[in-house]
UniProtKB/TrEMBL annotation:
<feature type="domain" description="Protein kinase">
    <location>
        <begin position="39"/>
        <end position="294"/>
    </location>
</feature>
<keyword id="KW-0547">Nucleotide-binding</keyword>
<keyword id="KW-0067">ATP-binding</keyword>
<dbReference type="GO" id="GO:0004683">
    <property type="term" value="F:calcium/calmodulin-dependent protein kinase activity"/>
</dbReference>
<dbReference type="Pfam" id="PF00069">
    <property type="entry name" value="Pkinase"/>
</dbReference>
<feature type="region of interest" description="Disordered">
    <location>
        <begin position="338"/>
        <end position="367"/>
    </location>
</feature>
<feature type="compositionally biased region" description="Polar residues">
    <location>
        <begin position="358"/>
        <end position="367"/>
    </location>
</feature>
<dbReference type="InterPro" id="IPR011009">
    <property type="entry name" value="Kinase-like_dom_sf"/>
</dbReference>
<keyword id="KW-0418">Kinase</keyword>
<comment type="similarity">
    <text>Belongs to the protein kinase superfamily. CAMK Ser/Thr protein kinase family. CaMK subfamily.</text>
</comment>
<dbReference type="GO" id="GO:0005524">
    <property type="term" value="F:ATP binding"/>
</dbReference>
<dbReference type="InterPro" id="IPR042696">
    <property type="entry name" value="CaMKI_beta_STKc"/>
</dbReference>
<dbReference type="InterPro" id="IPR000719">
    <property type="entry name" value="Prot_kinase_dom"/>
</dbReference>
<protein>
    <recommendedName>
        <fullName>calcium/calmodulin-dependent protein kinase</fullName>
        <ecNumber>2.7.11.17</ecNumber>
    </recommendedName>
</protein>
<keyword id="KW-0808">Transferase</keyword>
<dbReference type="InterPro" id="IPR008271">
    <property type="entry name" value="Ser/Thr_kinase_AS"/>
</dbReference>
<keyword id="KW-0723">Serine/threonine-protein kinase</keyword>
């Protein structure tokens, strides 16, 4: 027990380079000025693919962090994935990006002390609102664009942008939105990347084609997110995985009536530029930020909460989009093209199941 009376303590007895025992890999050196952490009873826990996130408190202060606890035995051979996330987070400092505050180590675990965000997930907050307009969606997208543009300026490609990775900083109405989950982010040393990764419903055509890709894949994902924010369902959907991938490859989507009847032409034009099939013609983040739907007064102010929240409930209900499974169909598609994804990154990603108002059978497509 520590002086704070907590049931579990995370203490670091020796400061210095964090070494992955048995491999010789060295992680970034923690800051000696960052105090050890203790977990307040009862600990809040969220479980991910190979880590657990717990609410933790700085010993001797009231400062809270989200402590990402990664068991070393579960990461044998996957150290590079965590090293990459740490390397990326060490480089970034932006008001709309969840910050890494420090790194700790115990004999059995690696601990990432992350900035605590308490406002909840994007879809949950939209559902709880009293009203929701196109202007609100424009403001949200603008914040995310600003964060991603900053990443791109550092040569970082997020590679897994999706609504689940967008969190509100606080529970208050004026809270900013935060970009999280940098497990698949990549520092782009050259012009292009080659590792296949991401979540199938949000991946750009060039990823499915196994072509070299760059920052434009993040812009495509933002186009998908923007589309969902305005109608409540995804632009690409099918119960058949090959057909889903075919739609993405053809950039085949519609602004369906009646869901898009009250949405401005400016919003549709904005989405067309983000969901451009050719990555060379696709908007950059800077171009998207300058579009009138983001920078001007083109977004409508009509309340669309009823329609959007109804579709979010149908298509991204917690029992559907929180249900995780391996993206085997996506990986199978990649392998059919004659090249397996590099490393194990893609096989570790989880993707969500969705339904859609067009599916009379009520069965969600297998994303």
């Amino acid at each position: 027990m520590c002086v704070n009376g907590c049931a579990v303590c995370v203490s670091v007895t020796e400061w210095g380079p964090v070494v992955w025992r048995g491999t010789g890999r060295t992680f970034p050196t923690p800051s000696p000025s960052f105090p050890a952490l203790c977990l307040p009873p009862p600990p809040l826990r969220l479980r991910g693919a190979f880590s657990e996130v717990m609410l933790a408190q700085e010993r001797g202060s009231s400062h809270l962090v989200a402590l990402k606890c990664i068991p070393k035995k579960a990461l044998r051979g996957k150290e590079a994935l965590v090293e990459n996330e740490i390397a990326v987070l060490r480089r970034v400092s932006h008001p709309n990006i969840v910050a890494l505050e420090d790194v700790h180590e115990s004999p059995s675990h690696l601990y990432l002390a992350m900035e605590l965000v308490t406002g909840g997930e994007l879809f949950d907050r939209i559902m709880e609102r009293g009203s929701y307009t196109e202007k609100d969606a424009s403001h949200l997208v603008g914040q995310v664009l600003g964060a991603v543009s900053y990443l791109h300026s550092l040569g970082i490609v997020h590679r897994d942008l999706k609504p689940e990775n967008l969190l509100y900083a606080t529970p208050f109405e004026d809270s900013k939105i935060m970009v999280s989950d940098f497990g698949l982010s990549k520092i782009q040393a050259g012009n292009m990347l080659g590792t296949a990764c991401g979540t199938p419903g949000y991946v750009a055509p060039e990823l499915l084609e196994q072509k070299p890709y760059g920052k434009a894949v993040d812009v495509w994902a933002l186009g998908v997110i923007s589309y969902i924010l305005l109608c409540g369902y995804p632009p690409f959907y099918d119960e058949s995985d090959p057909e889903l991938f075919s739609q993405i490859l053809r950039a085949s989507y519609e602004f369906d009536s009646p869901f898009w009847d009250d949405i401005s032409e400016s919003a549709k034009d904005f989405i067309r530029h983000l969901l451009e099939r050719d990555p060379q013609k696709r908007f950059t983040c800077q171009q998207a930020l300058q579009h009138l739907w983001i920078s001007g007064d083109a977004a409508f102010d009509k309340d669309i909460l009823g329609s959007v929240s109804e579709q979010i409930q149908k298509n991204f209900a917690r029992t559907h989009w929180k249900r995780a499974f391996n993206a085997t169909s996506f990986l199978r598609h990649i392998r059919k093209l004659g090249q397996s994804p590099e490393g194990e990154e893609a096989s570790e990603r989880r993707v969500a199941r969705h339904s859609h108002p067009g599916f009379q059978s009520g069965q969600p497509p297998k994303w």
